User: What shape does this take?
Amino acid sequence: MGPELTKDIKSFTLVQLQTEMESMGEKSFRAKQLYEWMHKKMARDYGQMGNIPRSLADKCRERYQYTAIETVRMQESKIDGTRKYLFRLSDGNMVESVWMRYKHGNSVCISSQAGCRMGCRFCASTLDGLERNLLPSEMLDQIYAITLHTGERVSNVVVMGSGEPLDNYENLLRFITLLTDENGLNISQRNLTVSTCGIVPKMRELADRKLQMTLAVSLHAATDEKRKQLMPIAERYGLTELMDACVYYFGQTGRRITFEYSLVAGVNDTSEDAGQLSELIGGLNCHVNLIPVNPIKERAYVQSGRRAVEAFKNKLEKNGINVTIRREMGRDIDGACGQLRRRYMES
Ligand code: SAH
Assistant: This one.
């Protein structure tokens, strides 16, 4: 199932790469040179690496794979300049990423898996199930390709594209190590957000690492009954367990949780829903992101109207909860998760 981590040169940490060089009888400084070509200069192959001898490049080619993604399509929003990229991985799988320009810097939303097996009812990424996990290098490649294409530095990364990052936990951790490494892009943990549908044991494991990134939790409902209708993961982990894990995460890391709540007309957007949500998360140090659901053609879900969204927000605010309405970006370019990939594969 996809390429192997132990043979993937762009997924090695610098220390691992040093060990590899030593085992090949190479000088250990070569590791740093290779690493910088891969992760700082974002080289697409050994041919670009000026100070790497051909003999070493040949040996590396023999032993490792060097992932490279190919841009298949790019769409730019005429409204806000948001760009959506469709990439092809070495084995033909497709993933998509989004680039957004904000006042405080450029942000990239990346995918962590090709497809997804979580089955959330309103989400396009999961309709055909999981193809495979992405390697750490393939998560980085999305950012590198976009950086090279835009010619601008990326300052924020959100793992909120297709896939469930905590279902690809080991690769996610390696990705974070490489992304935040001073010998690579050197993005601060504080500028990283990872979004999960709520895989409780992995949230707890992650908490114990005490990373300074933001954990976003997709809630979308404030009762177990309602949540189960929208998200199959709610059958595995109830809201009590999920909230306990959130409290634990905050306790271990000191980082407040972001809750994502996609508003679906007539399903989870009433005043009663807002009241229940306030009760559920009222005691937590958190932030709520309201997202009017992006309708997908395979499902009958309808976006809540402007009024309902405002009323929902006001009620949360009245209850002392931090809340923002997610600014809709790239509305004209297949904004919602997995839609671009899907459209391409159908055509
Ligand atoms: N698997 C992770 C991250 C990927 S989805 C997670 O579940 O959090 C990123 C966010 O977009 C999640 O909150 C997800 O529930 C939400 N989402 C997916 N499809 C959507 C849609 N059609 N409209 C609005 N939000 C959607």
The first helix runs from residue 14 to 23. The two ends are 25 Å apart (CA to CA). The pocket of S-adenosyl-L-homocysteine is lined by residues 118, 120, 122-123, 160, 164, 195-197, 218, 260, 262, 291, 293-294, 296, 336-337 (CB under 6 Å).
